[in-house]
Amino acid sequence: MQGRFSHKINAALERHLPERRLFLKSDTETRFIRLRPVTQAVAICGGALFVGWTIIATAVLLMDSIGSGTAREQAARQQATYEARLNALAADRDARAAEAHAAQERFNLALAEVSAMQERLLASEDRRRELETGIEVIQATLRRTLQERDAARSEAARLIAEAAGETPDARGADAEELAATVSFLTDALRKTAVEREEISEAAAASEAEADQLARELALIEERNDRIFGQLEEAVTVSLAPLDEMFRAVGLPTDRIIEEVRRGYSGQGGPLTPIVMSTMGGGAPEPDALRANEILRRLDEMNLYRIAAQKVPFAMPVKSAFRFTSGFGYRRDPRGAGTRMHEGTDFAAASGTPIYATGDGIVTHAGWQGGYGRLVKIQHAFGIETRYAHLSNIRVKVGDRVSRGDRIGDMGNSGRSTGTHLHYEVRIGGQPTNPMTYIRAARDVF
């Protein structure tokens, strides 16, 4: 029955696939292979399946190659974007630092100019007092001269009256003496008039000089007001970003400033009196009050800068890197489910320098479980930073480090899937997002 079924299939296929013979000839004989329709159909189907499988496999390989190439290109684009962003942030930070430095230089120049103007103002005040004293002396001399002139005129009138009432004999006897007296009085009056004119001219010149000094004093006061305004504006512009930076990370600025002031409160030197005014005793002048307020705010800005050095606002990695994991819950890279990631990961080449992000004291420098090689730094205000998975540690416990000091090298120690830095910031032992501090200082440093 099987033969009849095969015969029927061959007969059905023979219209499309007639029987073929494949001859194989050797030196001594010739043989042939009969290719029945069923055999040809099986060969054609097998070849078609093989060609189809080849096409599908090739397409899969091409799609995989294209997909991996696209992923690499996307990763390269993301890395280029990160690097461009970091370069822009670095340029912006350098520009801010240059602006702060320029503002500090302008403020120092303005203080020097204010000091010079204050000296000129004191000199003009002394000159004005001297002129007032000179004018008073001239006026007193003028009054005395006028009194002497009036007395001389009265004496001359009296002598003339007495001479007119005498007898002709007595008049003749005293004529020469009377003429001499009148001549003396006339000369005295002439000299007095000349002196009076000179004194009047001197008084007019003194009044003109006093008016000129008054105008100069007004110009100096106007210039001082303009300079004080510029200084107040510069201090406000410089102080506002510092205050906002601390508030952005949730640090109480009043408590921080007071703590820094207590830590930097050393005083000394001989006790000297405080000069409140150039005009003697009494309340301070408005300019002195404005200058004291500017100095107070400058001291506050300096306290902010001291506090900023103690808070981890800087980046722990200065070389090229990429962010591989942020702060918060994530899937564990070792397949242990979802866990809290208490820091930020920066990936770069092995041995990349790691730097302290703020002033502090090293409290741990060695191996610690899953952290691997770990450095802990205790900063002010209850803040601690951690630098994990290092390949090399360059500090020891008890070392006092400053912002920007190199403390280790990036590595792959501990529970890690590759070379990177695990960076943490903790306040009172509780982890917080390190990027909050880095972003807060982005527009200041």
Outline the secondary-structure elements.
Layout (H helix, E strand, L loop, with lengths): L1 H13 L5 E6 L4 E6 L1 H129 L2 H81 L4 H11 L22 H25 L11 E4 L2 E4 L6 E4 L2 E4 L5 E3 L4 E8 L5 E6 L4 E11 L6 E2 L4 E5 L10 E7 L2 E3 L1 H7 L5
Structure summarized in a few sentences:
By secondary structure, the chain is an alpha+beta fold. The protein contains six helices and 14 strands.
Characterise this structure:
With 445 residues, the chain is an alpha+beta fold. It has 3 domains: 2-71, no CATH class; 98-261 and 284-310; 315-440, Glucose Permease (Domain IIA) (Distorted Sandwich), CATH 2.70.70.10. It contains 6 helices and 14 strands. Strands 3, 6, 7, 8, 9, 10, 11, 12, 13 and 14 form a 10-stranded antiparallel β-sheet that branches. α2 (37-165) runs antiparallel to α3 (168-248), α3 runs parallel beside α5 (286-310) and α4 (253-263) crosses α5 (286-310). The longest helix has 129 residues, at 37-165. The radius of gyration is 51 Å and the shape is elongated.
